[in-house]
Amino acid sequence: MNLLIVGAGTMGRWVARVVDAEIAFADADPSAARAAADAVDGRAVEVDTDEPFDAVCLAVPISAVAEATESYAPNADRAIFDVSGVMAAPVAAMREHAEGRERVSFHPLFAPENAPGNVAVFADESGPITDGVREDVVRAGNHVFETTVEEHDEAMETVQAGAHAAVLAYAIAADPVREEFATPVSARLEALVDAVAGGSPRVYAEIQSTFGGADAVADAARRIADADAEAFERLYAEAGERDRSAAEIPTDG
């Protein structure tokens, strides 16, 4: 299989390392495309290439994925898939512009430097090419699980936008203290701050603007700040009960 990866950032490079294919990169920054291609013994092509490929992978920012799908669907002879981090926009665009071809949305739920991990997948139209991609992802040690577009994008409000907002809010609100004052909870929070704040601001900004979980975190923090002792106990119990309920949600195994 020959595969065109649109986007030579960290996620596009991760796809190139994981998927068994002859790789070509296209990127608005030609030097980035060349560097990514050299790293996997692939090649770089012009960003406006009309060359056909067995499959096209869209590894572009969330805000660009719909437009990129329209632009590069003609290059995909057999299959097109994305790893953008959202599902509604690319799935709709693939349906519109890649009819008759395999269409799958993958979302690795980790930064590439933290691989392997969980990978959500929605197969709108599966087939041998995208099944092979999925097998390669599993072979690299990742756990791939099925979802729907709606379930995925709603979940991202909690596990990405909400979680990131909570961690960043703690980092912004916290005063500097001596290391000896660390508690088991604060030490874990500091580690989470390092993990989140060490990423790309642009990527995190796109997540926040796409999914609405930050408002819910802000509302919950205000409820805690305004609570008297009795109200706080109710909120504390609510948090514990919610945690137990989440643990009971069934998965696909």
Helices and strands in order, then pairings?
Layout: E1 2-6, H1 10-18, E2 22-26, H2 30-39, E3 43-44, E4 53-58, H3 65-72, E5 76-82, H4 88-97, E6 102-108, E7 118-125, H5 128-139, E8 143-146, H6 149-173, H7 184-197, H8 201-210, H9 213-226, H10 229-247
Parallel strand pairs: 1-2, 1-4, 2-3, 4-5, 5-6, 7-8
Antiparallel strand pairs: 6-7
Helix pairs in contact: 3-4, 6-7, 6-8, 6-9
Task: Provide keyphrases for this structure.
single chain; 253 residues; alpha/beta; Rossmann fold; 10 helices; 17% strand
Order of helices and strands: EHEHEEHEHEEHEHHHHH
Structural class designation: alpha/beta
The CATH architecture of the largest domain would be 3-Layer(aba) Sandwich
Task: Report the radius of gyration as a whole number of Å.
Answer: 21 Å
**Shape designation:** elongated
What profile does the largest beta sheet have? 8 strands, mixed
CATH class of the largest domain: Alpha Beta
The CATH topology of the largest domain: Rossmann fold
Total helices: the number is 10
Residue-averaged pLDDT, rounded?
94
Strand order of the largest sheet: 3-2-1-4-5-6-7-8
Could you explain the architecture of this structure?
This protein has 253 residues and is of the alpha/beta class. The protein has two domains: 2-147, 3-Layer(aba) Sandwich (Rossmann fold); 151-247. Helices cover 52% and strands 17% of the residues. The chain has helices at 10-18, 30-39, 65-72, 88-97, 128-139, 149-173, 184-197, 201-210, 213-226, 229-247, and strands spanning 2-6, 22-26, 43-44, 53-58, 76-82, 102-108, 118-125, 143-146. The chain has an eight-stranded mixed sheet, with helices on both faces. Helix 2 links the parallel strand 2 and strand 3 (43-44). Helix 6 packs across helix 7 (184-197) and helix 6 (149-173) packs across helix 8. The radius of gyration is 21 Å and the shape is elongated. 34% of the residues are buried. The model has no long low-confidence stretch (mean pLDDT 94).
